[in-house]
Amino acid sequence: MLNPNLPNDLDAFWMPFTDNRGFKAAPRVFARARDMHYYTPEGRAVLDGTGGLWCVNAGHTRAPIVAAIKASAEEIDFAPQFQLGHPAAFSLATALAQITPAGLDRVFFTNSGSEAVDTALKIALAYQRAIGQGARTRLIGRARAYHGVNFGGISVGGIVGNRKQFLTLPGVDHLPHTYDRAEQAFSRGRPAWGAHLADALEDLVNLHGAETIAAVIVEPLSGSTGVLPPPVGYLERLREITRKHGILLIFDEVITGFGRCGAAFGAQAFGVTPDIMCVAKGLTNGAVPMGAAISAGFVQDAIIDAAAGGIVDFAHGYTYSGHPLAAAAGLATLRVYEEEGLFAKANALAPVWEDAFHALADVPGVVDIRSFGLVVGVELTPSGEGVGMRGRAVFRKAFDDGLLVRAAADTLCLSPPLIASAAQIGEMADKLKAAILAVG
Ligand SMILES: Cc1ncc(COP(=O)(O)O)c(C=O)c1O
Fold it and tell me: Which of 339, 366, 384 is where one domain is finished?
């Protein structure tokens, strides 16, 4: 239960993406974390199958990251970044540019993935305007996409539940999603079927006119809607069509970045380079909020070149863009990734991961298992109580039995810290299986 030494009014905190009434009737709370585990206030260990929320790629409370945060906090609290600067932000941008695909080396810092997405969309619009293509204002997203919660992100996003309470931007259209169970179920890695779905972009070009389309945004691998790896050839086809029509391609790498797919970014794992990339989460190992929109040089050059001397070139930025604490955490995190070879380790562990979870194919109720790198989605048939109820019941049972998983409707998603051992991967698969069987 909650720490009795702290005043805990459960009603005061309006929790994000939470069934507040349900949670407050039966709270689940973590008090501390170390390496592969969370600990409840009573001291019960919970194996972290989800890297927190797809973000703790180096494991919890790693000493070098904690030390860097402490040192930064003692040295400087805040540094304005509008017309001023702080060394750590420049250092982190430089370090990031060394691991991004060649040509993607202009880093605009934000505080979250949602802000990275809206920033990338604004960069795309500013770029088109800068090169004299101001009529290109249309943005193309994709069904079953999650791009955060800001207005741009929900507009290009493809999750009805995240859109219907609000309003969305005009001038947005969507590609179809890439999932078809009949064609793809139990594929290991990228499904062989589905490259042709990228051709839907040609249909949108025919419908709207290429000269009205600024950018297409996709997650290289959709995470939040249940782990949907891209079909073989799909991203290549999208790249070809966008290039042909002068449309910018944006990859939302908020989940796929920093080793999740067995390379620094999904772009490298899948061999396709976008024009802009959104990152967050693993950028600081989740320790301090931070995101970034990382552009190709030609994109930023065009925007800067179009601005008159002495005028702000891109009228966008956050008070906390490049915050010293976040930049220090990011630098320390990138160092841990490099020193421990965690991206290569994730790649080496991927077959172990795949085997462990695909062994659940015969468990009653499992209708698909989708995996790539160190991420997996195990999909169950919905129970008679409605879509998502079985997934949530398995999440709760696994939590009670010491494993953290994430339920996306009836798909149980796992994306552990990249430091996971083969034995811990086996434990995750065993515990998930037991929870599925227990829930029935
Ligand atoms: C692909 C993708 N984009 C954007 C976001 C939003 O990131 P944040 O929650 O940091 O705003 C997420 C979060 O899960 C995500 O998975």
Answer: 339
Structure tokens at 335: 């160092």
Q: What are phi and psi of 153, to 5 degrees?
A: -65, -40
Residues 217 and 156 in one domain: yes
End-to-end alpha-carbon separation of the chain, Å?
27
Does the C-beta of 255 come closer than 6 Å to ligand 1? yes
Residue with tokens 């320790």: 287
240-299 pLDDT, tens per residue?
999 999 999 999 999 999 999 999 999 999 999 999 999 999 999 999 999 999 999 999
One domain for residues 46 and 92: no
- Cα 253 to ligand 1 centre (Å): 9
Asked if pLDDT for residue 112 goes beyond 70, the answer is: yes
Asked if residue 435 and residue 406 are part of one domain, the reply reads: yes
Strand order in the sheet with 406-408: 366-372, 375-380, 411-414, 406-408
Whether the Cβ atoms of residue 269 and residue 255 lie closer than 8 Å to each other? no
CATH number assigned to the domain comprising residue 427: 3.90.1150.10
CA dihedral (417, 423, 429, 434) positive or negative:
negative
**Burial (CB count <10 Å: 0-12, 13-18, 19+), residue 121:** buried
- Nearest atom of ligand 1 to the alpha carbon of 253: 1
CB-ligand 1 contact for 147 (6 Å cutoff): yes
Q: Confirm whether 246 is domain-assigned.
A: yes
pLDDT at 429 over 70: yes
Q: Are strands 37-39 and 32-34 parallel, antiparallel or unpaired?
A: antiparallel
Q: The whole model's pTM is what?
A: 0.97
Domain residue limits at 125 = 66-339
- Summarised one tens digit per residue, pLDDT across range 175-221 is 999 999 999 999 999 999 999 999 999 999 999 999 999 999 999 99
* Alpha carbons 54 and 49: distance in angstroms, whole number: 9
In a domain, 116, yes or no: yes
Q: pLDDT exceeding 90 applies to what percent of the chain?
A: 96
- Are residues 142 and 38 located together in one domain of the fold? no
| Residue 27 Rama label (left phi>0; alpha psi -120 to 50; beta) | beta
Residues 314 and 409 in one domain: no
Which of 312, 339, 366 represents a domain boundary (last residue)? Answer: 339
Cross-strand partners of 248: 215
Q: Establish whether residue 252 lines the binding site of ligand 1, counting it when its CB lies within 6 angstroms of any ligand atom.
A: yes
